[in-house]
Amino acid sequence: MLLSDDTLEKIRAEISRYPQPRGALLTALHVAREELRGLSPELFAELAPLFGLKTREVAEVASFYSLFNQPPARAIIQVCTNLPCCLNGARAVVRALEARLGIRAGSATADGRFALVEVECLGSCASAPVVQVNQQAYLENVTPEFAAGLTVSPEAALGARQPAAVNSWFPPEVAGYLLPPGDARWLELGSYGAQGGWQALARAAAMAPGDLCKLVQESGLRGRGGAGFVTGMKWTFMPPKDGRPRYLAVNADESEPGTFKDRQIMERNPFLLIEGIMIAAHAILADAAFIYVRGEYVDAYRILRQAIADAYQAGILGEQARALGRRLDVHVQRGAGAYICGEESGMLESMEGRKGQPRKRPPFPAQRGLWDQPTTVDNVETLSHLPAIVQNGAQWFKTQGAEKSSGHTLFGVSGHVKRPGVIELPLGTRLSDIIFKHCGGLPEGRRLKAIVPGGVSMPVLKAEQADVAMDHESLRAAGTLLGTGGVIVLDDRSCMVRAALVVARFFAHESCGQCTQCREGTGWTLKILRRIENGQGKPEDLDAIADCCFFMDGKCICALADGAAWAARAFLTQFRGEFERHIKEGRCPFPESFEV
Amino acid sequence: MARSVRVTVDGAVLEAPEGTPLLQAMLDAGLDIPHYCYHPKLSIDGSCRLCQVEIEGMPKLQISCYTPVRDGMVVRTQTPEVARTRQGVLELLLLNHPLDCPICDKAGECWLQNYAFRFGSHFARTVEPRRKHGKRLDIGERMLLDQERCILCRRCVRFCREITGTGELAVFKLGDRSLLDIYDQRLDNDYSICTADICPVGALESKDFHHRMRVWFLRETASVCPGCANGCNIMIGERGNRIWRLTPRRNDAVNDTWMCDWGRLNYSFPQAPQRLLSPMVAEGGRLAAVSWEQALERCAAELRRFVARHGGSSVGAVASPHLTNEELFRFGQLLAALGVETSAAPVRRGRFDNLLIKAEKAANAAGARLLGLARGSDDGLKALCDGIERGRLKALYLCGEDLFEVLVPERAQRLLSSLELVIFQGLALLPALSGAAVVFPATTFAEKEGSFTNHAGRVQRIWRALQPAPGWLCDGEIFSRLRSALCGERDTFDPAEVFQEMAAAAAPFSGLTLEQLGTAGVPAANGAAAP
To answer: Is the separation of the CB atoms in A542 and B114 below 8 Å?
Structure first.
C-alpha cells in the first residue's frame, strides 16, 4: 500500500460527498500526489478500486490534467508564461531559473530536487510575472533575481512567502457591491454579517422561486463567465421539479488568460458568493451546489472551504439551511490544471471525475447536467451579483450599467499599465477610462498599441478603438466581445506576432483534443506563428492561418476553437502589416518587444 | 417502428424513420458523406467533425451524425462552405499523418486515402515536422498499433467499452499530444481484430494480415463463418486461390459488424497440408489413391453388397454439421434409399460468450437437426454408439471429423474397429480411419455454394471463393452420384435445385428458395407452423 491510512480516510470521506465515487477522483489524485510527491501506475492501481474503476481509467483521467503530469521533484517551480506574464518579463524569469538549475523548462534536475515548468495563466495577471512552487501561495511580481533565490534549496523555494497584496478595488465614485472597500477581506461570518450580509438571502427566501427567477431575469443580469447569457433566462430552462435531485454547478475554474476577478471574490468576500449560491439554489430549487475551483487557486480553495465549514457550523448551510428551512449542501471541488474545464460541460465532466472534454449538446445541463440531473451552471461573479439585485431590485440593477448590460462588473486589467488590478466598475465604462483613468495609463514614454478586451479569446482591438464602451453591445459593434472583461494592454514596443504566438500556444496547450479542427488547428497555427516570428515565414503562411481560423470557427463541439480562431484572426487582420514585415524581413522587426 | 419522415437532401427527397441520425439516413440513401467517428453500431462521438452539413434554419453547419432526421428538414451537402469544411478536416488530419501508405496494410481501403482523394485538396501546405509517436507497437496477441497513423476517432475505444466491455484502449493526454494506447491490459479480447476493421486508417492492424497482401489484389466473396453455430456473415478475401483473410460483413440479425478473432483466423484449413486431395479405397490392406469414378463405383458396390447382406438398418450414418443444408438433404435422401435408420450429427463444443461465440463449433448443426439427421438432445450420438457397440450397426457412413472430438479417442477407435464397413468423407485422414473401405475428400465452405442454418434457425447463403481442382466433386455431388448409382435414377447436384426439392420436402424450408436468401439470409419457417 502506497497511501497512508490518513490519506485513505480523507479520500473515503471525500467520496461520501458525491452521488458517485468518481466525483472525488481529482481530489484523491491531489491528496495522493501531495503525500507521494508524484503519481504512478501503482498508485492508480491502488486508487482504482476505491472508485469502482479500472487502473487504466484512473490513468486516463490523470493523463489529461497538467497538474498531474509535471516532472516529479521536491520543489516544482511553475512559471506562468501566458500573455500578461510575458508582457511583464516572464521569459527572463524562466531563463534565470534555467541557468541556475541547469535544466530546460519542462524537466527536473537529476537529483530530483527541482523541476521547472512553464504553465498557462495562473490568474494573477496584475502581479505578473507569477510563480507558484508546488501548491503553495503565488509568488508575485517575480524578478529574475528573486527567482534565482528560489533555487538555493527546495526548502527555500517551498518556504518563499510574500505579504498578500490586494490589487482589486472600486473607485470612490462607484458604490461597489462585489468587493469589500479598500484592502478589507471579509473572511469571517461576523464581518460579512456586519456589512449587511444575509439580508438579501432572507428576502429572497421569502419570495416564491418563480418570482425570484423573474426578478433576476428582469434585472438583465448576464453571465460573467464569458458568454454573457441572460442568467434569469438560463434558470427558466430547468425542468419543473420532478423528484430528481437538482444541482447548481458553480464555475470557479477561472482560467481565461487575463482573467483574475472571480479570485477576488473568493479570496476577499467568500460569503457573498455563498449567499449568491443560496439565492440561486432557492430560485432553481437546487438540492446542492458544487463549486469547481481551478487547481492552482489554493488560497481561494482554502478560504472557500473554511467559509463553507463556518456556514455549516452556523446552520446557514446543511440539514436545515436557516434561511431556506430545508436542506442545502455546498461542496467544493478542485480542478487540476485544464482550461477546458472552465467550459461548462467540460467542467461537468471533470466534476464527475472524468477527462474534461466538453459534451455534445443537446442535452443541455438543465436537462441532463451533473450526474445526469437537471443542473444550472453559473459563474462565481454572476452569482455574487444576486444579493445586490435582491436587495435593491431589478430596476436599480438596470441603472447600474449600460442599456443591455446591467450592473457592475469586475474588469481585470493587466499588461502594460501602471496600476494593474481588478476594478469594480459599471458595465459600459469606456475602455480608455479603464486604462488611463483607473489604471494610470501606460508606463512613462510608452504608447498604447493594442488591447485584448475580454480575455485572450476575444478579438484584439487597436489603440484607436480604445474609446469603446465596455458592454456587450458596444464591443460587438467594434468587432469584438466582452468575454470575461479581462483587459490586456499592449504598448507600442510589443510585437503582435509574438502576442498572437503566446495566445496560440495557450490554445494549442489547452485544446482537449476531441475535435479534429481544434486539436490539429491550434497546433498548426502555433507552429506557423513560431516560424514567422523566427523569420522563416512564407507569404502563403498567412492564408494558412486564415484558413485554420475558418476551419476552427463554429465547427467544433465547444467554443474553445472559436476563441482560438477569433484571437488569431484578429491579430492577423488588425496587424497584418506586422506579419508581412516579419516574413519580408526574415526576422522580428521589434527588437524591444516583450519576449515569449 | 418509428414513423417515417421526409428529408430533402440536395433537392432530393429521402425517407427515414424518425430519429435516425441524418448521416445514417443519407448513407442509407447511397449518398457519399465523409465521416470517421460515426459507426452505426457504436455510440455517437461527434468529434471528427467531418460529416458537417448545412441545415436550413441552423446558423452553423451541423454534424449530421448527431442530428436526428425531422420531417421537412432541408439539407445541403454540396455548398462551398461544406466542401471547404471537409477539406479543412482532411488537411488537418493529414498535417501529422505519416503518409506511409506504401507499407500500410490499410492502403486501398483506407478512409483517409479515400476521402482525401474525393474531398481533400490533393497537396500539402504544411512544412512543419510531423509528430513522432509509437509505430508497430505490440499491443496484443493479435494486434499492432501505429500511433502516428491514428486520427483519434475513438471508434476502437468505444468498441472495447461498449461491445466487448473490456475497455483496453483509451486516449491519453490532451490536445495534439492525445495518444491512443493500452495501459494495464493488452488488447487481447476475443474480438480484438474488429478494431482493425473499424479503424478508418491503418492505426490498428491485425498481426495475421500485417504486410501479407495488398487489399486491392483481393477478390472478396460473401460467405458465412464456418467456425460456430452463430453464422457470422463474412467476406472471404482470396487471391491465387488462397484465402488471405476473413472479415465480418454486416448483418444486424446475426453479427452486426463483428466477428470473433478465432473465427476470423480460422481460414487456413482449406489449404492445410494434411488435407485429403484424392479419393482412396482399401487395396491390399492399405488405402490407395484412385480416381473419383473408381471410388464412387467401389463405394456403391460396397454399400449395395452390404445392404443386400445385412439390410439397410444395419448401416449407421454420421452427418457432418459442416455440410450445407443442400448437401445434408441429399445425404438424407441417400440414407433413405439405403434404408438407413440410425443417423447422428455430433458437433464439437467449446467456449462461448454472450456476444457472438456459440458453444457448437460448426456452421450447420441446426440444419442437420431440421433435416432430421440428428435427433434428440445428443443429436443421435448415443443411439449410434449403442447400435455399434451392441453389434446392431455393422457399417458406418461417416462424414466429418467431429465424432472424434465428441468421443474420447479410445472409444472412437474401438467403435470404428468393430465395424465391418467404414466409408469416410472428410478433410483429413485420421489414424483411426486407416481401416476405411472408401475415403472421399470433403469440400470446405469456401469452395462451394449453398446455405447454412445458424443456431437461431436463420438460413444463410454462402458463395464459392476458391476453385476446387478440375473434376473435383463436392460433398453434395458425391451423395448425388452415389444415389444415382444405387437407385438407378439420374441425380445431379445443383444447390439451387436441391434447395427447391428441400423446400418442397422439409417443412422448415418450405416457401424458400436459395436465391431468395440473398446476402442477409432468412429465418427458417417454424416446422410446426408449416403446411
So the answer is: no
